[in-house]
Amino acid sequence: MRIRTRLADELCRSPGDIQAALRRYETGHRPMVDAKQQSFRFARAMLLPATRSGIAVRNTAPRLALALAGSITRRLAEGELIAARTESEDALADADVDQRQMSMARREYAPVLAESA
Predict the structure, then answer these.
(1) What is the C-alpha separation between 8 and 22, in angstroms, rounded?
(2) What is the tens place of the pLDDT at every residue in 52-80?
(3) What does the alpha-carbon distance between residue 27 and residue 19 come to, in Å, rounded to a whole number?
(4) pTM greater than 0.85 (yes/no)
């Protein structure tokens, strides 16, 4: 049910009992409204802090984000992050080969192990 038609749909379900339609509308619509209001309260607290320390954090956060972005950009330009990613991918590929070899060995030796048990 689309949001903008929820009230109309609830009113159509019980045209003689408007109070019941409004209660159903409130029950269905309230979780979304609460979530939106909570998001707004969080954004307001972040943008308009009530304390000096909150203001300092708010003012420092963008500078820190820019500094980190610059560091990441520089490392990408120098190839550091790409090399690290490649090493990780190689390690994962090696682990995958090891797992396949272990699976093949288990299948190959399963009859022998079953006989000795």
Answers:
(1) 10
(2) 988 888 888 888 888 888 877 777 776 66
(3) 12
(4) no
